[in-house]
Amino acid sequence: MGYRIHPLAAAMAVAFSSLACQQAMAQTTLNEVVVNAGKIRDAATPQQIGAAEIAAQHAITRDAAALLRDVPGVSLYGAGGVSSLPVIHGLADDRLRITVDGMDFIASCPNHMNPPMSYLDPTNVAKIKVFAGITPVSVGGDSIGGTIVAETAAPQFAAPGQGTLAKGEIGAFFHSNNNAQGGNLSATLATESISITYTGALAKADNYTAGGDFKTNTATGRVGHTLALDEVGSTAYESRTHTLGFAVRGGNHLVEAKFGYQDVPYQLYPNQRMDMLDNEQKRINLHYLGQYDWGMFDIRAYHETVDHFMDFGADKRYWYSGMSGGSNSLNGTPCSPITGGMAGCAAGMPMYTTSKTTGLNLKADIDLGANDLLRVGALYQHYTLDDWWPASGGGMYPNTFDNIKDGKRDRLGAFAEWERRIGKQWTTLLGARYERVETDTGDIQGYSSSYATDANAFNNRDHNRTDNNVDLTALARYTANNMSDIEFGLARKVRSPNLYERYTWSTSTMAALMNNFVGDGNGYVGNMDLKPEKAYTASFTFDWHAADRNWELKATPFYTHVDDYIDATRLTAFTNTNNQFVVLKYANQSARLYGLDLSGRMPLAKTGLGEFGLRGLMNYTKGENRDTGGNLYNIMPLNGKVALTHQYGNWSNAIELIGVTGKNDTSSVRNEVHTAGYSLTHLRTSYTWKNVRVDFGIENLFDRFYYLPLGGAYTGQGTTMSATGTYSPAYGISVPGMGRSIYAGVNVKF
Ligand SMILES: [Cu+2]
């Protein structure tokens, strides 16, 4: 364990802290100019995570999805260190609509290593809205669960008469457990009508260690360095995120151009066979927002390219005795199979993915008098995907393996939504959305003739599929008095299969193991006959609160039935296999999910020593496959969180207690591994002085060992190509959570 702070980051923090005393100039954002306060109280009230909550997380996490962990109803699938997948009420990944500055990104990787939120660093997120219950059709589409709307900062302009606005922010952070460190910088230069902003962030971490010893398998001669007994293999990462924004405003009009570039040189995966060894995203986002007499008009055009590369990372470069003439190093140099098969090392298995996404979103809010608002909009998205694996050793030659070739997924949609206020107590919302989703691929080939049976069967069929999907939402909000609100609604939502679900074709165990975006260690084979998933959801939110929201208590029970839920069935060869990883084929079945979120907060005492308060959260979700009677995969067991908070002047402190019950309702078709219950304690403190914010804390104070309930199966070290666990990884180990970690962060505004 090291405690070294990057000298550059430290120097930058010191240098810029001298600027801390210069107060930021007065400024205005577009919202003050363009948006007048909504005449109608929104029927849907998403959970909103604002700048203050996000700032409090800067020192704690580099994973933008983790900013959602205190949102009722949300949990996270573990993945790479900066790319966990949000889950809302048991539905995750592509089942949610997740937008980043209004753009719909699609994970382009057979393991979904680059989901939408992974393109954001927490330091460049300004606001996140989570629609966990009923999602209005205006923010939904091609999803059956909730919606997450993540936004970077709105452009800032100088106030009238202010001249030039120049401001910025710089920060650095450090975590002791995995030596995670990094920094962020943002700078804005603006006049009253033109604004330019840059934001950048760097983050880097080693493998983390579990609390206490972890059952690692060192029997098979690991190449490179030897994992410590408590080290969790394949959890290191490095990420570099940059955005550059230009904005011009005049009168009631705003035009923006935002450019994004992210490069992730490596992000290792403890629950996948492969590691992400390069991911590059480039994006352009053009936006117009205007206010007219009749309402508001919003148009956005975007283009994104992703270049993704996978192979065995540092902890999976394995030599094993079954290989002819092998050794785990060559003249003392660790094997480097990635760069091309040094003699005696395990062969690498390069895998490439590229995608291009072009989209157009139109939205108009039309005022129909004081009590009625009509929202209409349209969406176009054109997505292309290629996923190929060049010939490599171990029988994977002489041809390139086409996993998805010339893949295409196009969406064309339109919606209309009518929001109405009835008296002082009721707001209602009715909406309908139509989407046409067309998918297609070209013909494919395997590495060799031994893949011919599957390849011919695939190539002999027509691959083009078109779905016509209709979403409907009815939502009402009733304000009984100044202390209670009820929000309730019904929705029908439809999602078309993604390209990997529909078009991955090889039933060979090796290829199937590569196609897995849930991290359960199993292999998956696509199914061209998949139909879209259709979900029917009923949800209520009871919201009791003080008139001034000094205290509040919210309860959200929910129920969703899904027709044609895309679950999976075992290939024949694995029908009776219950003690190893298996190969599954995607299949439409029916499912239901239900549960309850509870959340609340209250003041405890105001004393001479400051103000004390309590915050709490509880989530329960049950997911069932109605065809088999089994459980759905990766459902977060009953869990809760209580935080005792303390505020004294500029000091803010908290003790957080987290309790999670054992995961026993597991998916038997996947041989999903049970995890035991656990509890964790975190200590947090922060001090804010003028423009400086300092954070310090200890996570997992008592260094508890625990397994992540949604972290998937541990395949983070060893010959990770095995289904049986003959070599490491042994079948049946989950991914452990992080042991004790001290964190520190500093942020300076100038
Ligand atoms: Cu990948």
Please indicate the percent range of residues in DSSP E strands (runs of 2 or more).
over 45%
The coarse silhouette is globular
User: How many distinct beta strands?
Assistant: 35
- Output the radius of gyration: 26 Å
Terminal CA distance: 34 Å
The biggest beta sheet is recorded as: 22 strands, antiparallel, barrel
Alpha plus pi helix count: 6
Ligand types: copper (II) ion
Structural class: mainly beta
Rounded mean pLDDT is: 89
Which regions have little confidence, pLDDT < 50, spanning 5+ residues?
Answer: 1-5, 7-26, 30-38, 217-224, 319-344
Helical content (DSSP H or I, runs of 4+): under 10%
Topology, pairings included?
Blueprint: H1 7-17, E1 27-29, H2 30-34, E2 47-49, H3 51-57, E3 74-77, E4 85-88, E5 91-92, E6 97-100, E7 103-104, E8 127-131, E9 147-151, E10 156-158, E11 165-175, E12 180-190, E13 194-205, E14 237-250, E15 253-267, E16 275-292, E17 295-311, E18 329-330, E19 333-334, E20 351-367, E21 372-389, E22 401-422, E23 426-440, H4 452-459, E24 465-481, E25 484-495, H5 499-503, H6 509-514, E26 523-525, E27 533-545, E28 552-570, E29 583-607, E30 610-625, E31 639-648, E32 651-660, E33 678-689, E34 692-699, E35 741-749
Parallel strand pairs: 6-9, 26-29
Antiparallel strand pairs: 1-10, 2-8, 3-4, 4-5, 6-7, 8-9, 11-12, 11-35, 12-13, 13-14, 14-15, 15-16, 16-17, 17-20, 18-19, 20-21, 21-22, 22-23, 23-24, 24-25, 25-27, 27-28, 28-29, 29-30, 30-31, 31-32, 32-33, 33-34, 34-35
Bound molecules: copper (II) ion.
Residues 109, 111, 113, 276, 308, 310 line the site of copper (II) ion.
